[in-house]
Amino acid sequence: MTRESAADGLLARVWAELGRDTAELGALGSLPAAPLPARLDVSGLAVASVAAASLAAWARTAAADSIRLDGDRVAAAFQSERVARLDGVAPDVWSPLSGFRRARDGWVRTHGNYPHHAAALRRVLGLGSAEARPEVVDAAVAGRDADELAEAVTAAGGMCVVVAEEDPAADAHLREHPLVDLTRSTDAAPRPGPARGAPDRPLEGCACSTSPG
């Protein structure tokens, strides 16, 4: 299966699970490949994600034109931390809490780039913000079992996964379940969508307030 067909398949599956009209997929031209080198199909995921967001906007505005995606731009957006510069200097985008760490019985991958993920990890490890230096986090993780730690951090609202070999049987089982889980949060009437057509300003007609200038 090519990356292009993988993106097409992923998009079609998600669009159907969202309860959308699959005929709307016809607004998309041929999906490009995004130059994102990886062992997993990151390119297919990136292109399908951008295509779904673009298609949702297209459907809400009833645009007449079809959608054309640029694979190079998709790739740049998904690895923007590699091209972004602040005063000519590439910013350090990785938290010291993020990384591969050795647990008591294996390895885990922790994530602390977002404040709520960092807070959840610190809570589970019993660390204050001033204590969350890499070497301190390493020592705290080393005293925990990988599975137990990953479950505890996830339950606390953080991100921590066990590093393990691929399990084809587990992958096959996951493919039998929907990728999208829709939950109704309210019975209120939906808000009106943005005005159809081609407004003079980007947010004209949307259900939000803006001030001029």
From TrEMBL:
Composition bias, Low complexity: 187-197
Native species: Agromyces marinus
Region (Disordered): 183-213
SUPFAM superfamilies cross-referenced by the UniProt entry: CoA-transferase family III (CaiB/BaiF) (SSF89796)
Highest taxon in the source lineage: Bacteria
Name of the protein this chain belongs to: CoA-transferase family III
